[in-house]
Design a protein that fits this description.
- By secondary structure, the chain is mainly beta.
- The protein has a domain of about 80 residues: Sandwich (Jelly Rolls).
- Strands 1, 2, 3, 4, 5 and 6 form a six-stranded antiparallel sheet that branches.
- The longest helix has 11 residues.
Length: about 120
C-alpha cells in the first residue's frame, strides 16, 4: 500500500496477469478497498464462489453473461455490475476474452496475489 495516488495502465496490467498465468491480478490494496483485474478466456469457466465483501465489476473488454443472485444479463465494455457480499455470482457464455476491473470493499480477505 502506498501513501499517495497510484496510476495503472490497463494494457500493462493485462501483460502482468498473462505473464504470471493469473486469472486474477490484484494491483491495488488500501485500508477500505482492494482492486484487481479478472480475466476469463472465450468459452472459459468462472470458478468464483460468493465473497465476504461487496464487489463492483467494471467490464473493460469482452462479452459474457453475468449471473448474480436470481438475475442474469449480458455484459460488455462499459457494463458495471454491483454484487453484494455473499451473493452467488459468475460469468458464463464468454464470447470474447473478458477483462474486468473488480473493486472489493472492504479489501478482499484472501492473500494478495492469490489466484481466484
Amino acid at each position: 500500500m502506498q501513501d499517495g495516488p497510484e496510476f495503472h495502465e490497463f494494457e500493462q496490467l493485462v501483460k502482468r496477469g498473462d505473464a504470471a498465468g493469473q486469472r486474477y491480478l490484484e494491483f491495488l490494496r488500501g485500508p477500505t478497498m482492494s482492486v484487481g483485474l479478472y480475466s476469463l478466456t472465450v468459452d472459459g469457466t468462472d470458478p468464483q464462489q460468493p465473497h465476504a465483501e461487496d464487489e463492483l465489476y467494471i467490464v473493460l473488454a469482452g462479452r459474457a453473461t453475468v449471473h448474480a443472485g436470481d438475475a442474469s444479463r449480458p455484459v460488455g465494455p462499459g457494463s458495471i455490475v454491483y454484487v453484494p457480499a455473499e451473493v452467488p455470482h459468475r460469468f458464463t457464455d464468454i464470447t470474447e476474452d473478458l477483462r474486468v476491473a473488480v473493486v472489493f470493499a472492504p479489501p478482499e480477505s484472501r492473500p494478495t496475489g492469490a489466484a481466484e
